[in-house]
Design brief:
Helix content is about 70%, strand content about 5%. The protein is mostly helical. A three-stranded antiparallel beta sheet has the order 1-2-3, with no helix packed on it. α6 crosses α15. The two termini are about 20 Å apart.
Length: about 500
């Protein structure tokens, strides 16, 4: 790591702020410490989890599970089972979040269990490919659906979608740079808006069901259509739809009373999401047959056109707001992982600095911006996601394996919240089974993704392990840190 530097002037100020007699930096207006405060309450924690889990998928294409499971009844059972399995994973992370009270999520837990090299490989894969591609995909969905009402019934020009997407990404980055409090408040609003959108689907659907519209549920468990060979793929689609329950663990240091708030927020969120997902699918089947659902490109829009008439125009707007909530929650959480990695000396030092007035990790928020924009306009995003989809479950499986490993290697570690051992064991087995499924079903793309992640090994030894850098390189790194520090008005966090 390079030495920390600040710009101190003759008048005793540091970049427009006062220095107290003990050398601590203080905000000129409030005299507050420059740090990330504990501003994530229970409601904000729930909004982060729900807001990032529920994206565009439940509104657009829940047909992957139906296609692979083969029947309406089996598809609903898969939705429920995936919700339970995701709850097992979330409870495992709740234990990790209460016994390791550091932000950073996967990165921090792998670091604690298996050391810095394994943690850096995870960080490298996230930074180079996984997160920019995932961010670009959800942002493209936002751009597509925010423009849908303006262009109906015509197709939207691809350039217009990318422009709207770029504006959406920029606004999310700006919001997260501006204020932690306002980011959390807007996340709460967006979470309630997407729950309202789901309610608009569930309530009319349940009304139809109670009126006796059950013809599409007849022979729901027709075993003649069930394909056992497709069930693993159905579970893979379902687990992907529930992904996001781990994001609160990325901001543990900013959670009020994390020992109680983290487990409670996770449990409440998973119950709400699972209930919403299952009831939304039941609502779809009250209006559409399995064949109609499989033929639809946007299930929620088809549902609204059949049942709600002109109000269906509002559905794309709700989908866009849902995508925006996922974008906002992802940036809020992921920036803390880069902040912690910088604090551990595995990323440039400026990423662990805080804005002197806004008290946000400005540099860590902005790090994904150039890579995301580059992939948006130049990269083949969807093929990259295919490469990386199995890595998500590989590393989550490694994290939960680390929990089991630390039960035996660190038995005296304080565990305010402790789950029965069978919960992480079942979830860990599920993760590695999905990794094996990826290797079996798509060995080429999986191999490419694995190869990209392995480039983190030489990167670790070049940038992290060997401390004797050439003097010219060290001077260049120091100059880079100082320049960005001055431009962004960031300083090291007060201890």
């Amino acid at each position: 790591m390079t030495e920390r530097s600040t710009c101190t002037h003759k008048d005793g100020k540091v970049d427009g702020n006062k220095v107290s007699p003990n050398g601590k930096l203080q905000d000129e207006d409030k005299g507050a410490k420059v740090e990330l405060g504990r501003k994530v309450t229970l409601l904000r924690g729930i909004s982060i989890i729900i807001g990032t889990i529920i994206g565009a998928g439940i509104f657009i294409a829940p047909k992957g599970i139906l296609r692979h499971s083969g029947s309406v009844g089996m598809s609903l059972l898969v939705w429920i089972a995936c919700g339970v399995l995701s709850l097992f994973g979330a409870l495992s992370y709740a234990e990790l979040g209460t016994c390791i009270k550091k932000s950073g999520g996967h990165y921090t837990y792998i670091m604690e269990a298996f050391g810095p090299q394994m943690a850096f490989i995870r960080l490298w894969a996230d930074l180079v490919a996984i997160r920019p591609a995932a961010m670009a995909v959800i942002s493209l969905a936002f751009g597509q659906y925010i423009l849908e009402p303006l262009f109906m019934p015509c197709d939207i020009p691809p350039s217009a979608v990318k422009l709207a997407t770029a504006i959406g990404i920029t606004s999310v980055m700006y919001l997260n740079s501006l204020s932690v409090t306002w980011t959390a408040r807007i996340q709460i609003f967006l979470t309630f808006s997407k729950l309202l959108a789901i309610a608009i689907i569930i309530v009319p659907g349940m009304y139809q069901l109670f009126r006796g519209e059950t013809r599409h549920f007849e022979n729901a468990f027709d075993l003649g259509k069930v394909k056992l060979s497709g069930m693993p793929l159905a579970f893979y689609s379902g687990m992907y739809a529930y992904a996001g329950w781990f994001y609160l663990n990325f901001v543990t240091e900013e959670v009020e009373n994390p020992e109680k708030t983290v487990p409670l927020a996770i449990c409440i969120s998973m119950v709400i999401v699972t209930s919403c997902y299952v009831l939304t699918n039941v609502a779809y089947y009250t209006v559409m047959s399995a064949e109609e659902l499989l033929a639809s490109e946007a299930v929620a829009v088809t549902f609204a056109e059949k049942l709600l008439g002109n109000f269906s125009v509002a559905v794309p707007v709700f989908v866009a707001l849902s995508c925006y909530g996922s974008m906002n929650g992802c940036i809020f959480a992921l920036s803390r992982m880069f902040y912690v990695a910088s604090r551990e000396g595995q990323l440039p030092e400026v990423l662990s600095m805080i804005h002197v007035r806004r008290h946000t990790p400005l540099a860590a928020v902005l790090i994904l911006y150039p890579m995301t924009m580059l992939q948006l306009f130049l990269g083949d995003i969807y093929s990259l996601l295919n490469f990386m989809s199995f890595l998500r479950w590989l590393f989550i499986g490694v994290v939960v394996l680390g929990l089991i490993y630390m039960r035996y290697t660190k038995p005296d570690m304080p565990r305010p919240f402790k789950v029965p051992l069978f919960i992480p064991v079942v979830f860990c087995f599920t993760c590695f089974f999905m990794v094996f499924l990826s290797l079996y079903s798509d060995p080429v793309n999986t191999g490419i993704g694995f190869g990209i992640s392995l480039t983190g090994i030489p990167a670790y030894y070049i940038f992290i392990y060997y401390h004797r850098r050439p003097k010219w390189l060290q001077r260049a790194l120091d100059s880079f840190n100082r320049t960005l520090q001055i431009i962004l008005e960031v300083v090291p966090a007060d201890q």
